[in-house]
Design a protein that fits this description.
This protein has 271 residues and is α/β, with parallel strands linked by helices. It has a single domain (11-258), classed as TIM Barrel, CATH 3.20.20.30. It has 8 helices and 10 strands. The radius of gyration is 17 Å and the shape is globular.
């Protein structure tokens, strides 16, 4: 079942970063877990914690072990370096970089536009834009600004997918969200907005913000990768699926199809 709620389809992604190790086998395990929940894509940052590695190489090994989920490395290299991953995954790769290089049809361009200065570039070139917001009002303001800037560049703002990037700590049992979390909004930390509570309250937060038009979806960063991703998929995502708010199967085989971007975004803006 493909669900829609509020403004368009709900999109969900998750980070598979690990704070103390860069282990491809674990990346495969986490990516397959995310795929079992029909998430749009996973991200991998080779700079996470003390462990460093090549996220493109790691996701190239994840590709044959998965079938549908999008694979998005955070890299500083030109877009061309991600093309082999896109080919190996048959159109499932994304390119997450701060470089202001236009991205043609493949792979999908992802940009972090939390800082105001980055929003101009993101609105002009990106397909998926990540923002860190501690409230639905904050998220909505960022989304509105990005859509307005995209329109100024001659783009259709509907080609943008604005996702709130949120740290999630789902703990080891169901519990109500702590003060400052859940329905009251995530708590701002040095690493960004952080939700701490149970999977049910997280589902309510996601459904609420999306229904209000504050975001097209969420990029969720587990505090404890294996524990939190499992609770996210089996708890939060399962509940959203049960309520008809998130799909239970992939609509296609490429990341663009998952995102509803089967055609190249219009980048015919004036230089």
């Amino acid at each position: 079942m493909t669900g829609s709620y509020g403004r368009g389809l709900l999109h969900l992604a998750a980070a598979v970063d690990q704070t103390d190790v860069f282990d491809t086998e674990r990346h495969v395990e986490l990516a397959r877990l995310a795929e079992s929940g029909a998430l749009d894509f996973v991200t991998l940052d080779g700079r996470s914690g003390q462990a460093q590695g090549d996220p493109i190489d790691a996701l190239s090994q994840v590709a044959p072990a998965t079938r549908r989920i999008g694979l998005v490395p955070l890299v500083t290299v030109p877009r061309a370096a991600v093309v082999p991953l896109d080919r190996a995954s048959r159109g499932r790769a994304g390119w997450w970089s701060e470089a202001p290089e236009p991205s043609p049809l493949h792979p999908v361009r992802v940009a972090d536009a939390t800082e105001g200065a980055a929003r101009r570039t993101a609105a002009r070139y990106a397909d998926v834009v990540l923002v860190r917001a501690a409230s639905s009002a904050q998220a909505a303001a960022a989304r509105d600004e990005l859509r307005h800037r995209a329109r100024e560049f001659g783009r259709n703002p509907d080609v943008l997918r604005v996702l709130v990037s949120l740290l999630v700590d789902l703990g080891d049992g169901e519990r109500a969200a702590e003060p400052g979390h859940g329905g009251g909004g995530p708590r701002q930390t040095a690493r960004g907005p952080r939700y701490r509570g149970g999977p049910v309250d997280l589902a309510e937060l996601i459904a609420g913000w999306h229904g209000q038009g504050a975001a097209d979806g969420f990029h969720l960063v587990p505090v404890e990768p294996r524990r939190d991703l499992e609770r996210l998929v089996n708890g939060t995502v399962a509940l959203l699926q049960h309520r008809g708010l998130f799909r239970t199967f992939y609509p296609g085989s490429t990341l663009r199809e998952h995102l509803g971007l089967s055609r190249a975004a219009d980048r015919s803006a004036t230089p």
